[in-house]
Specification:
By secondary structure, the protein is of the alpha/beta class. The protein has two domains: about 10-140, Rossmann fold (3-Layer(aba) Sandwich); about 170-370, Hypothetical protein af1432 (Orthogonal Bundle). The chain is built from 15 helices and five strands. The protein has helices at about 20-30, 40-50, 65-75, 95-105, 115-170, 175-195, 205-215, 225-230, 240-245, 245-260, 265-280, 300-315, 325-335, 340-350, 350-360; strands at about 10-15, 35-40, 55-60, 85-90, 105-110. The chain has a five-stranded parallel β-sheet with strand order 2-1-3-4-5, with helices on both faces. Helix 6 (about 175-195) packs across helix 12 (about 300-315) and helix 7 crosses helix 11 (about 265-280). It is elongated and about 105 Å long. The chain starts with 10 loop residues before the first strand and ends in a 17-residue tail after the last helix.
């Protein structure tokens, strides 16, 4: 940042082994600047680090460490890299000037010095450095602001999901741990498939995180299902089952309305909408609500389909006992290429122990077994 400080007066470091040259430059610059001086390259390096001058006038030919070597060292240290260096030299060969500029010098002043030229060039490069510092500070501020706003948006998204899923839990006792388990199942599957040729482009790190955030909303449409059906103790009639199936459309429509209120598309809502609407589609086209087939089914929904069915199979309900992990795994494997994307089933089978661990970690308590839990996993 330089040593300008509270006084607003820039600091100039003059480096020259000749005392007369230092005296001339110091007397010339002192009316406008705080001037410090060094008689050799080693002292210059120490002063540059300690004083952090705003600009350095550096003699090229000095005993011991040359001006070129000093410049090289200055530019190799983070603390001094940004300090502008103007070379002072009696050398007039073009290759010497080129060498200095390549090393990071910003300008040359030939000796004997011309006072107006010295003053003009020092002033110009100080202005350039001030502008660069201002832009750097602005960029740092903007990066901090973007980071802060990104955190705010993420927090708002997470709070929205918690609010909506908490509302869903008041309607359906089963949703509490189910949504936590399916959330982690989907993340585990996505992480497993992130390098798969069919899925790598669709499962980058940001998308995988959004899948995790969005997964709890996959059954949000159940809020719109009548209590007499949603909370029924036992199996549904065919007519009730058709009404229950509308939870996919109800969920999609609710999220669609939220998306339409925004002026720009939001990937988080888009993924949540895909999951809510299409997680009951089947690979062979036998699912609902649209009978989509194969790759026409969104990837997010294909992932959720495996997660949702596995969880429904292992869960105990008033009308059935939960399957063992082994039986549920075999049931899903049997539907490979029928109900489910074959590659996603293969990924599931390869990490089935992870599914078992998630199921254990977020297991239902006994009270939740009395819930309705019409999960439509058949």
């Amino acid at each position: 940042m330089g040593a300008t400080g509270m006084t607003g007066v820039p600091t100039v470091l003059v480096v020259d082994d000749a005392p007369d040259n230092r005296m001339i430059l110091c007397e010339l610059l002192k009316p406008l600047y705080r001037v410090i001086e060094a008689p050799d390259g080693e002292a210059a390096m120490h002063m540059a680090v300690a004083e952090q001058p705003d600009i350095i006038l550096l003699d090229v030919v000095m005993p011991g460490i040359s001006g070129f070597d000093v410049c090289r060292q200055l530019k190799s240290h983070g603390e001094t890299r940004g300090i502008p260096v103007i070379f002072l030299t009696s050398l007039n060969a073009p290759e010497d000037e080129t060498r200095g500029l390549v090393l990071g010098g910003v300008d040359y002043i030939t000796k004997p010095v011309n006072p107006p030229v010295v003053m003009a060039r020092v002033a110009n490069h100080l202005r350039l450095r001030a502008a660069a510092d201002f832009l750097r500070d602005q960029n740092a501020f903007l990066e901090q602001e973007i980071s802060r706003r990104t955190r705010e948006v993420t927090a708002i998204q997470e709070a929205t999901v918690v609010a909506l899923t908490s509302l869903a839990e008041t309607r359906d006792n089963e949703t509490g741990n189910h949504i936590r388990r399916t959330q982690h199942y989907v993340k585990a599957l996505a992480d497993r498939l992130k390098d798969h040729p069919r899925f790598a482009a669709a499962l980058d790190e940001v998308t995988r995180q959004m899948l995790f955030q969005s997964a709890p909303l996959h059954d949000i449409g159940k809020i719109g299902i009548p209590d007499r059906i949603l909370l029924k103790q036992g199996r549904l009639t065919p007519e009730e089952y058709e009404i229950m199936k509308t939870h996919t459309t109800l969920g999609r429509d609710a999220l669609q309305r939220a998306e339409e209120r925004l002026t720009t598309p939001v990937s988080f809502l888009h993924i949540a909408k895909e999951m809510a609407y299409s997680h009951q589609e089947r690979w062979d086209g036998s699912g609902y609500p649209e009978g989509l087939k194969g790759n026409a089914i969104p990837v997010a929904a294909r992932l959720m389909a495996v997660a949702d069915v596995y969880d429904a199979l292992i869960s105990k309900r008033v009308y059935k006992q939960g399957m063992t992990h082994e039986a549920a795994t075999a049931a899903i494997a049997a539907k490979r290429g029928i109900d489910f994307d074959p590659d996603i089933v293969d990924a599931f089978l390869s990490i089935q122990d992870t599914f078992r661990e998630i199921a254990h970690r977020f297991a239902d308590d006994e009270a939740s077994h009395s819930g309705s839990a019409h999960h439509l996993a058949s």
